[in-house]
């Protein structure tokens, strides 16, 4: 199955400027996507993001046993090591961390690895589910996620068999409020051919109204 998600990154508004607090990278020309969200002093955001994303890529590309689950977990381990090495030299150790969400497609199976506030959702037959959630329950309310990431949280992981017609979308937890999720689901149910770009626009539009950073993506599973 071809993995062609639509994604868009929006910078956070700080004073009279904008800073990169979130970023997304595509690995292997698309089959794997990694989103990261920096926590801590704004002046360190780019520094923290690059250490995690570069580390994940290094770990993902190392020798492996051929399984996608192995590769994403290798990526996480090296990302943790890279970030820990940089944070140990900072004064702001306690508040510096990076949330990470990795999505990797293996045939028609989607692997989801999460550590932080980023959320991934699957809409199937009008039922919305959060993937790789930590507590086993769908919690669409925002604002109750810990401000932590790969250094302080145990990652969650799942493998989901995708079906034609499924819609996958992901964004920062602060954007996935009840009202935003209802808006996205209503739009998708009202138009079964709604493009992935429209879903991303809905998610990032909510961030723009609040001046927040956002790295949102959406993917509609085609017929196999």
Structural description of this entry:
- With 224 residues, the protein is α+β, with helices and mostly antiparallel strands.
- Helix content is 29%, strand content 33%.
- It has helices at residues 45-60, 68-87, 178-190, 196-210, and strands at residues 6-10, 12-14, 17-19, 22-27, 32-39, 97-106, 109-115, 118-124, 127-131, 156-161, 167-172, 214-220.
- The strands form 3 sheets. Strands 1-12-11-8-9 form a 5-stranded antiparallel β-sheet, with helices on one face. The protein has a 5-stranded antiparallel β-sheet with strand order 4-5-6-7-10, covered by helices on one side. A two-stranded antiparallel ribbon has the order 2-3.
- A hairpin with a 2-residue loop joins strand 6 and strand 7.
- The model is unreliable at 136-144 (pLDDT under 50).
User: Which strand order does the major sheet show?
Assistant: 1-12-11-8-9
Q: Kindly state the number of beta strands.
A: 12
Q: Supply the number of helical segments.
A: 4
Give the overall pLDDT as a whole number.
89
Approximately how much beta-strand content do the residues carry?
A: 25-35%
Order of helices and strands: EEEEEHHEEEEEEHHE
Helix fraction by DSSP (H/I, runs of at least 4): 25-40%
**N-to-C span:** 6 Å
How would you characterize the largest beta sheet? 5 strands, antiparallel
Q: What ranges have pLDDT less than 50 throughout 5 or more consecutive residues?
A: 136-144
Radius of gyration: 17 Å
